[in-house]
Design a protein that fits this description.
This protein is an all-beta fold. It is 0% helix and 48% strand. It contains no helices and 7 strands. It has strands at 3-6, 12-19, 27-33, 55-63, 67-74, 89-96, 99-104. The chain has a 4-stranded antiparallel sheet, with no helix packed on it. The protein is elongated, with a radius of gyration of 14 Å. It starts with a strand and ends with a strand.
């Protein structure tokens, strides 16, 4: 489910999912933010595992110094398994504008 998060600086952050393959459960998180003028920036994908698996149930939280914390449920360990077997993991990262830094696992 998409969500919109106002940030303390007045900017907005939003997240949504984008399909990454023919499997209906293969989708990636996309995050976008407004700049100081209110213009939406190009979306970024906070995970870089390259798997066509489930990534979703995203939470966005303001982080110190005008950064954004994104946390999501990540299915990369389920890649290549029939019936999507395997464990889901909780992953996250802190974003500064378009740059992703400090990936959390």
């Amino acid at each position: 489910m998409p969500s919109l998060r106002p940030l303390p600086s007045g900017r907005l952050a939003a997240q949504y999912l984008r399909s990454t393959g023919p499997d209906p459960l293969a989708y990636a998180v996309q995050i976008t933010q407004t700049d100081g003028a209110g213009t939406w920036q190009s979306a970024v994908r906070p995970h870089d595992d390259g798997t066509a698996t489930e990534h979703g149930f995203v939470s966005l939280l303001p982080w110190p110094d005008d950064r954004l914390l994104a946390v999501w449920l990540d299915g990369r360990t389920m890649a290549g398994r029939d019936g999507h077997g395997g464990e889901m993991t909780l992953r996250g990262g802190v974003q500064v504008g378009r740059l992703r830094t400090n990936a959390l696992r």
